[in-house]
Amino acid sequence: MITTKSIKMQQDSENPQANPLRSRIDVASYLTSILDALEPHTSPNGARIHLGYTATHFDEVAAQLEGFSRPIWGLASLLAGGGSYNGTSRWRSGLASGTDPESEEFWGNMRDKDQRMVECSAIGYALSVAGHELWGPLSEKAKEDIGNWLGGMNDKEMPNTNWLWFRVFANLGLSKVNSPRADKQRMKADLDHLDTFYIGTVQLDYYSSSFAIQVAQLIYSKLAQKEDPDRCEEFRNRARMFALDFLHYFDSEGRAILFGRSLVYRFAMSAFWSALAFAFDPSEGVDGVNYSLPAPLTLGVIKGLQLRNIRYWAHTQPGAFDRSGILTLGFSYPNHNLLENYNSPGSPYWACKAFICLALPESSTFWTVEEEEYPVSLRNTTKVMKHALQLTTNLGGHTYLLSSGQQCSYPVKQSAAKYGKLAYSAAFGYSVPVATLTLEELGGDSTLAISGDGEETWKCRRVTKEARFEGKDEKHCWLRSMWYPFPDVEIETWLIPPTLDAPLWHVRIHRVRMQAGNRVISAAEGSWAIYGQGQDERALESIIGGEDSESEGTYAAGGVARVVSKAGVSGIVDLSPDATRQGQALRTDANTNLISARAALPVLRAEYEEKEKDIWLVTAVFGLPFDDDERKSWMEEWKKRPTVPEELVTLMK
User: Which one, 2, 80, 386, 467, has the greatest CB density within 10 A?
Assistant: First the structure.
């Protein structure tokens, strides 16, 4: 029988932008549209999903396994919560054929440190929560094959990282379906070892939260409560503490601060909230377990954080999908400059972790409570992230962080852009280089770029040294660190967060010291890169009316540069004691910025020769996003100028 509800779900599936994404039915419909789009790319027996021809450091079969396994985070959750999907048989068949050594679609046995291990996490989760649909109907041979394939990782070497969670989930899933290949001793040993990694509830990048560790702990706490109650309670306590920090990485529009690697996973950035709902919903809990949440968190607040993020992607970021509904390799649009060498065309479907909340039935508390807005008590606040060496702020309506002291322990593509910038925004994102020859190619937003070869190439901060907080207390503190672009050049940087007196400005101070010699360096410091087109969709032009005009366009004069477009306002002002830098409104090369493919960037530029005394650069950076194309009056805030803490003024003297 065709009902009004079924017609609505079909319409929403065909046009995600028409889907309000406020109820469980809405979210299930959106997931269905994502899963449906994969069908034409699925192999005859379902085990491989081929979405493109770009390569990774691992083999093609493993890449197509990614395409199969990662959507199962969403599918298994939908089935676990009592939902259904017409294409479930594709994944059920794929599990059987992918693990059958005699099948043409066999995934291949696992070797040491094999990429296939990563995909065992989703499969183990699926067996744990949706075994009735994905395991139960299979033949005994298929069950034996799946057990042998997953269990085949138990005697293999794994990286000593969060990868151990993948083996935990493989064994957890096998134990939930009573497979003889489950190795509970190995699972306990892995969990015990993972606990040694714990350094506190700290957001380092999204792997420490939504992509991997926190989500894994929350799921485990829900699924293993009866078998491992003490560890599960510890995981819930960690999540409670972590959530109070993680709140500050999201803005009231549902956007998360762009920082770190693997951003191709997109709405997986909010998966922590989805997993928190799954683990803490009292209607789905176990008697005697404490499911309380610390203020200001409620299930309604969590629901808002999760659904606003999904709506942000579905309603405002059409470039995240191609015209057939496949997630693209990029962020807001297809962008291979962003990718790591482990990103296959199937990698973006890690985003389906955001649908873990669908494992809760429609009758659950999470789906019946009213969605709440971003907590009022956390607006216009600044938060010290002690272990992460970051300061987050949302003063004036702009959510971003100042960062020092973070870098990857191994080479990651574009790591200077992903970890080394001075600031990262939820609204404006960050930029990555497309080449190194010109400043336009560099995409040098929120960084101090240095050239020592006549601007032939540019270097930005990648590795920081001696990073620490300074100041009287958490309400009056800043970040301080060292970095070395060249052996004979050292730069010390202070990052000072905004204040209530000038909420849209933050301050950066750099002390540049060069050793004696004939060194000449060029320096270019960038503000936020923002959308660089005008209302006529052509490149922004210089405004008429000077600095006091609020008109759309670019402005640059003396030590000032500013860009105004439908995305908001970005500006930079030189406050240096010996102010010599020139402002410029730079059109960065296409596809550098992750949010705006055509971006403009206010910068300050200068050349410096070796001097006996230190060169002090003091920079004020302004940023105001316009949400939903709503233009705000901002000139009063622009005319304010931030103050430099007295301690630093004294230091410069």
Answer: 80
